[in-house]
UniProtKB/TrEMBL annotation, chain A:
<feature type="region of interest" description="Disordered">
    <location>
        <begin position="209"/>
        <end position="246"/>
    </location>
</feature>
<dbReference type="InterPro" id="IPR029052">
    <property type="entry name" value="Metallo-depent_PP-like"/>
</dbReference>
<dbReference type="Pfam" id="PF00149">
    <property type="entry name" value="Metallophos"/>
</dbReference>
<dbReference type="GO" id="GO:0046872">
    <property type="term" value="F:metal ion binding"/>
</dbReference>
<dbReference type="InterPro" id="IPR006186">
    <property type="entry name" value="Ser/Thr-sp_prot-phosphatase"/>
</dbReference>
<keyword id="KW-0464">Manganese</keyword>
<feature type="compositionally biased region" description="Low complexity">
    <location>
        <begin position="209"/>
        <end position="245"/>
    </location>
</feature>
<dbReference type="InterPro" id="IPR004843">
    <property type="entry name" value="Calcineurin-like_PHP"/>
</dbReference>
<comment type="similarity">
    <text>Belongs to the PPP phosphatase family.</text>
</comment>
Automatic annotation (TrEMBL), chain B:
<dbReference type="Pfam" id="PF22972">
    <property type="entry name" value="EVH1_PP4R3"/>
</dbReference>
<keyword id="KW-0539">Nucleus</keyword>
<feature type="compositionally biased region" description="Polar residues">
    <location>
        <begin position="651"/>
        <end position="674"/>
    </location>
</feature>
<dbReference type="InterPro" id="IPR011993">
    <property type="entry name" value="PH-like_dom_sf"/>
</dbReference>
<feature type="compositionally biased region" description="Acidic residues">
    <location>
        <begin position="686"/>
        <end position="704"/>
    </location>
</feature>
<dbReference type="GO" id="GO:0005654">
    <property type="term" value="C:nucleoplasm"/>
</dbReference>
<feature type="compositionally biased region" description="Gly residues">
    <location>
        <begin position="860"/>
        <end position="871"/>
    </location>
</feature>
<dbReference type="InterPro" id="IPR055236">
    <property type="entry name" value="EVH1_PP4R3"/>
</dbReference>
<dbReference type="Pfam" id="PF04802">
    <property type="entry name" value="PP4R3"/>
</dbReference>
Amino acid sequence: MSSGGSDLDKAIQQLRACRPIPENQVRELCYKARELLIEEGNVVGVDAPVTICGDIHGQFHDLMELFRVGGDVPDTNYLFMGDFVDRGFYSLESFLLLLCLKVRYPDRITLIRGNHESRQITTVYGFYDECLRKYGSANVWRYCCEVFDYLALGALVTGTATNLEPSEAPFADPSSQASMPGLDQDIEIETLNSNGEIMFRFARNGEVSQPSQAASAPSSSPLVDTPSRTGPSGTGATSSSNGSRGNDGGAVLCVHGGLSPLIDTIDKIRLLDRKQEVPHEGAMCDLLWSDPDEIDGWGLSPRGAGFLFGADIVKCFNHKNDLSLIARAHQLVMEGFKEMFDSTIVTVWSAPNYCYRCGNVAAILELGEDGSNAGFVRRANGDAGRKQNSVLMERGERGREGPGRRYRVFEAAPQDSRGMPAKKPVADYFL
Amino acid sequence: MALAAAPANDRKRVKVYELKNNDWFDRGTGFCKGVLLNDEARILVSSEDDPSRQLLETKISKDDGYQKQQGTDTLIVWTEQNGTDMALSFQEAEGCGAIWEFVSEIQQRLQQINDGLSDDVIENMNPILLPPPELGNLPELENMMRAANNSPAGRDALAKFIVTADYIAKLIPLVEMAEDLESIQDLHRLCNIMKLLILLNDSAIIEYVVTDEMILGVVGALEYDPDFPCHKANHRQYLSDESKFKEVVKIEDQLIKKKIHYTYRLQYLKDVVLARILDDPTFSVLNSLIFFHQVDIVQHLQGNVNFLKELFGIFGAEEQNLQRKKDAVLFIQQCCAVAKSLQANARATLYQNFIHNGLLDVIQFALKHQDASVRVAGTDILVALIDHDALMVRGYIFKAINEKTKPLTDTLIELLLVEVDLGVKAQMADAIKVLLDPNANSASIEAIGRTNSDFLAKVRGGISAIPQTDSFIQNFYDESAKKLFQPLKDLEGRKSMDDLTIQEVSLYSHLVEVLCFFIRQHSFRSKYFILSEGLASRVAQLMLCPEKHLKLTSLKYFRTCIGLHDEFHNRQIIQNRLFDPILNILFETMPRDNLLNSACLELFEFIKRENIKAIIIHLVETYREKLQTITYVDTFQNLILRYDQMHEPATTQEMDNSFTTQESDTPVRNSGSVNCGRWQGLKDADAEEEAYFNGSDNEEDDENLPNAVKPVMNGASPVRPLVNYPDDEGDEDAMDILSSSGPTVSSTQSPSPSSSASKQDQESPATSPAARDQTPQPTNPAQTPLERLSEKRRRDDDEEDELAKISTQNSKRRSSASSNASATSTAITHGHMLRRKKTINSGKDGGGAPKKMAISIGVKSGGGESNGEGE
């Protein structure tokens, strides 16, 4: 869809400067976005390479920082996993900018729904008030909420590469280079800071000078997932590091919250009628509200909506759906990202210094394209059509190798790049 | 101290225990006595084997938390100053009692002495006295204030001093001095000091800083935030602009006028000046100050006869100033917004006074205003009024009907039909829904209910049975509904649906949505209305238009109808062959995975799952060949299968029933109970009967559960939402789909009330009023044992695995405490991992870890209602 046009570009420009666009433009934008989103499945198919982002929460300047660190649209493909609005003071500008980019570059950016993309939640956590302040009426809020109802519930990333092409970047701490895996090894995980310097690199076969791996807690570390070279027979969880396989890294399911006890295959998500306010229970609610937790099976969520789910649930779901990884957002993690359950699920959080005071860093997750050829070109987004129905995959062997994962960690935008963040004051007052 | 008599020191045999690693460690057996030494009271235990060896010597202090164990009478436990838990286990209750008496008496005495002292402490020992502020001593002052800020007592003392010494007034001149000297350092310090003083969270200080004399100086200091060294805010300029205050009618009372300004400034502080740094306590202090001011203001105004007369007089013919009329509407809108948080009685008086002065005419005026913002305000006022008391509004509409004047409903309908502003249109459609919602809350009912609980019970049983509501709705269907839905009716005979204007599209979607609402809310009246007007076919006609979202809306109407399990609606759909356009949409969108297609699939899945026989028979008999070609999901093959089974000899049916134990001919409203796992979901495209039975076997394997258990378990948890919330058409199915995933799932399907009560400052969908109604769900009886089971499992884990302990404990805490705690615990576990990573990185940014800890603790403590960290 070539919905270019100077009006849209102008709007993008204006929003990039953190200035809201007029109400009638919002209405048109929402109208166009709706036309576009209605064509998307409940689970959108997305081809690698793609950069996956977590909660934004109206922190506009940090969103700009995200684009600086991750590359601009349309040069980088993005997938945002919801919670664009509430809490921060620039929900409106943040969401409208993302929506503009979506309309302008529909194939370069994917937006899925978070639990905050809801009428009820936004009236409590700030977006409603913000719209009222900035436009004097709730109209814009209504238009946006209408768009929320059309947002997809998840995305499925395919065509990822098993191994990262190592960044040609300097090490953040040169002395650490010696302890990192060499370039001849398959790189599974790389963590970069906001200057693009390598903070950490991890090879798939786990040859990092990393003591006492086995003794680490059964969660949260990308280090513990290393499959032993000779896994128990039947698990297929072996990992050979030799030779380039050009193996694709398996599919990655992206949802805002997590899994649902009512959904055991991705295809079942397709049977939901998503055009509605986020319900208080049921599959759609769970996808947006659940959290992984160190429990067995399913547990009650302290949030009062969705569920807690344990490693067994994730592993079983990934196996059944031939997924190598689930990427989700929804929970603040101080380090910006957190892998759990032997790297079968990862939380990505993209709002640095959440609420302007939590002191956390943010992260985005880059998944490379399955190059299979020597000349690995990052960002080579051929306009090849999206894969048809990659959802209906044969049941794969157990123990897929996860995709190579490059995390870029970043902090809140430097103070000088923005004014003092504040809400818009009430314009006129009678009382 | 000498007053306390030492107990008679006959030898009391006792065992001394110390708590080490959760185990009571036996320190030995000996004899215990209480002694007074140098004005200190001690308990001594000397070993019975070697009397010269002391097993215990402890000084009794006032807050060691001594406890005598209830029940046994031989055990005293306490915590030492160093935090060690200790216990004395006496051989005889008598000895225990004697020592206990001694301890209690000493502690009481210590308490009295300290209380006597404590007053002195605040007045003499800990008063804060700061030198008069000068630019020269600002660093010193800032440090002293920070030091005082660290303890609660210090904060109190500081606040007290600031108020009594009128210290802020002394600080303010320094801002201009520093500005003249262009001393940015001093300005930053002044800003820090001012922030600190406001965040002392003393309401006297906060009220003081927004007074006319102080406000500009205070925000002036706050313009130089050291966090933004290159920026200067323009708070003074903003706040000194007096044109922002619109005084529609002159407010004579100076105090009230002041309060209006204070409120505005408090709001500005909250939203702009302090937005980024507000902690939760200060946030709520600001909010409550604003609230109390507003209440005072509104209360004053609504009781002021002259004021109201002049306010509503603005809408009279004499008033020529159009801007003033507009402002008056906006003024009333703001009053109504504030009124929402008033107590019911006060709010009722306010509305009565307003209505008495002509509020309804104002609404009529506003709704017809050419300026969209005024129309928005008009609808806002109307909705606020209906929300407050729908019965009352309906009463007025009745009165209008009887007096043969145009009722508000008709005005609304006319306006909805012609409204061009799409936002206002949406709001008017909402207003119509609220007005005709038989369940709308009503202050009148509540008021009656308070005096007569029987009545209330009856009302709660069936609000639609209230004669007034009922006849109101009857009247609506007799008179107004035709006008409302006329545009839909006019579609009949329209040749092409390809040329709808944006206005038409939006009108039709609103009308269909209102219609959906009506068929759910007023079942029988709406049914006959729809039949007599032939609306179902018109709605179906909308599916022919190219606008996909309108198709979707129209599809949703049929989904709503079918969801009602009402033969009447089903018959209408079947007789008019309204599945034609639905199947057309399905075929148009078919191979693709998009929203419209999913919505169609969901509809047919629902029919299949609910086994709605009339529709299944109709579908298969009319469209069999068509349906057979749809193989990308198994829904349609299964529909045909169902049909075939209905028409097969009894033996097959019996076999079928043995598998799906709860099949029945009657449609079951509580759909949760009919969900037998094997009917659910997509299997391989060729759903032959064979494969279908195999499929169910597979599933059994996956779940590790005997198939027969499933229906029972599913049946055990049909917890339906009690809440009636605006867009829940799809809710039902979203919930019911595929509850095949095993009994554990169904057992946890609804969070119990107790769990939702424990979530404290977490955001949850239950934060809205609508959701609150939902919270008291009946606890699922199947839930408790399973919950216990999983808890037990967790405990087992604890015992098994030392390393895993940290994380399991975290998860325990997470499930019981707030999400803040969970965020913290997550941070800790992960922080641990990160530190390990850092060893590789040679501790590059090692400074991060302690900082994170500190901050997450800060987050944890700051859990207020509105700023919970659940994300």
